[in-house]
Design a protein that fits this description.
By secondary structure, the protein is an alpha+beta fold. The protein has two domains: 112 residues, Rieske Iron-sulfur Protein (3-layer Sandwich), CATH 2.102.10; 248 residues, Naphthalene 1,2-dioxygenase Alpha Subunit, Chain A, domain 1. It has eleven helices and 23 strands. The strands form six sheets. Strands 14, 15, 16, 17, 18, 19, 20 and 21 form an eight-stranded antiparallel sheet that branches. Strand 12 and strand 13 form a beta hairpin. Bound molecules: FE2/S2 (inorganic) cluster and fe (iii) ion.
Length: 431
Amino acid sequence: MTLVDHTPSQLAEFPLVDEDPEHHRFRVHRDTMTSERVLKGELERIFQRCWLYVGHESEVRNPGDYVRRPIGNRPVFMVRGVKSGMVHVFHNTCTHRGAVVCRQKSGNTKVFQCFYHAWTFDSEGQLKGVPGREAYGEKLDFDALALKPVARVESYRGFVFACFDPGVQSLVDYLAGAREYLDLIVDSADGDMEIIKGTNEYCIDANWKLLAENSVDGYHALPTHDTYFKYLVALGTNLSGGVAGTSRDLGNGHVVLEYGAPWGRPIAKWEPLFGEHARDEIAALRANLVAKHGEARAARMADTNRNMLIFPNLVVNDIMAVTVRTFMPTSPGRMDVTAWEMAPHGELPQLRQRRLDSFLTFLGPAGFATPDDVEALESCQQGFNSGGVEWNDISRGMAREPHGDDEAQMRVFWRRWARQMGSAGYLEVGR
Ligand code: FES
Ligand code: FE
């Protein structure tokens, strides 16, 4: 099939996601990864209409705390109101003549003063000051000129989301089965997880959906991250059990991959990497979890890994550390990635240190995993540019009850993608 320019009467359309259960075939057209037209459709139909992760309430713990946090390629910021104590997410644009109001990445303030003509807004978004006030007369409507909140803002267990579509379903309904997995993380910390200060920010020269796929792709771990596994084995970790697990469709395009942890987990599973001195401490943490949650739930919290994708662009990985990652396309072949590390609030310093080491060893920008994954994704994007092959094959596991190392989880994502895109998920071709 060759894509050509035709007059409308000569056009036919074909879906970019092609599922054929009878022949156990699931294909995704590579134009999904390279086309400007597809990206435009995604910005309109996915990023303007789905719930998007903004940040975590712990990032604005105190009244007046704020973080600047673009979402869906639109500048917004999150702030905790000094008077109300509520978390607001505002469009980051001055109601005077447009300048960005919140210019620092994060901080604490009672007042945001626009740098252009010095209009001032408080932490509740209310317009407070207008230089040359008398020039406007008595009718200047301060309420109407308040900062505009994003159409919908809701949070679940501290995770704050926003949506530009006022008619979107509630966040709780949207999250569907993903809630149980967020609960597992938050409950393991007695309900008080926090984002550790500092972010990993990087760009990848690859389409954003490649990272969505990769984040729940169990199949790539052994070949792609071979160096890490060799390192663990050299330290004495027993990997003979492999990385077996299951994937679960959580509804609404969200999916989780759950598997036994071959590596240590700072929450309560010791491994040689942590050192002998940490054995007793970790055993005590685990006993505490069992006492609070019972053996079965504690074992799930402590011993299993979960890589979860919340459609469209949030990944919460509870693996050798808990990481929250979001990503956004800047062009069909490039994305910005931001990642944070989560931990129980008030964790003891030595536990925190071990957690950060564990996080950086695998997931950090110079860790064992991230550079491998970045290279794999960029390699795919380069491959797409070669042309000659039109479809990606994502069929693995269609001929059986899918295993965790099959590709069922990617199919969950792509089905939702196709539904969300509607007619924009089709491409015009010459007959
Ligand atoms: Fe903000 Fe004029 S644009 S004060
Ligand atoms: Fe990976």
